[in-house]
Amino acid sequence: MATLYVYGAFLSKMLNKEVDWDSDTIKVLLCTSSYTPNQDTHDYADDLTNEVANGNGYTTGGATLASKTATYDAGNNRLTLDAADVVWAASTITARYAVIYDSTPGSAATNPLIAYIDFGSDVSSSSGNFTITWDSNGIIRFAL
Q1: Beta 3-6 vs 113-132: how paired, if at all?
Q2: What residues does each domain of the chain span?
Q3: Cβ contacts of 14 within 8 Å, gap of 6 or more
Q4: C-alpha distances in angstroms, 62 versus 54, 78, 90?
Q5: Taking the model in full, what pTM does it have?
Q6: C-alpha to C-alpha distances, 135 to 43, 56, 60, 94, 138, nearest whole angstrom
Q7: Deepest in the core among 120, 131, 138, 144, taking most CB within 10 A?
Q8: What digits encode the pLDDT tens for the residues 5-41?
Q9: Euclidean distance between CA atoms 68 and 117, whole angstroms
Q10: In Å, how far are 14, 92, 113 from 126, measured between CA atoms?
Q11: How large is the C-alpha radius of gyration of the chain?
Q12: Integer Cα distance of 95 and 103 in angstroms
């Protein structure tokens, strides 16, 4: 079962205007099981290791999230960040983690990490679609 974790520094990065969900280029990249996520200390993309190799339907740096939304539900006091599902078509990929980050600053040392998904085990595609289907309640939901 896949589980999403928000990197601890993400909220402070949003408040410091380092991440703008609506207007920045938010991407998702894939890492192998050799990456060891650290929710508390990883804050920028230079902390990432073992990204899936370029080729076979995957491009280094991952895919750009399309149709991003940030929606506030006043009735339930929730803020939801969402985007369209991501598909790497006709790909041969094996990944354990998907990492969401802001690529707008432009370098690994300055690209803030947002969240990561632990698929629970390796997930693979073989000359087919590798798809991330976001939860129907959104990618990230904050209770306020």
Answers
A1: antiparallel
A2: 3-143
A3: 20, 21
A4: 9, 28, 15
A5: 0.97
A6: 24, 26, 25, 21, 5
A7: 138
A8: 999 999 999 999 999 999 999 999 999 999 999 999 9
A9: 18
A10: 37, 4, 28
A11: 15
A12: 20
Q: Which residues contact 106 (CB under 8 A, 6 or more apart)?
A: none
Are 67 and 85 spatial neighbours (Cβ–Cβ below 8 Å)? no
Closest by Cα among 94, 88, 83, 92 to 31: 94
Q: Are 35 and 107 in contact (CB under 8 A)?
A: no
pLDDT tens for each residue of 91-134: 999 999 999 999 999 999 999 999 999 999 999 999 999 999 99
What is the total residue count of the chain? Answer: 144
Q: Which residues contact 6 (CB under 8 A, 6 or more apart)?
A: 39, 114, 115, 140
Residue with structure tokens 């080729």?
55
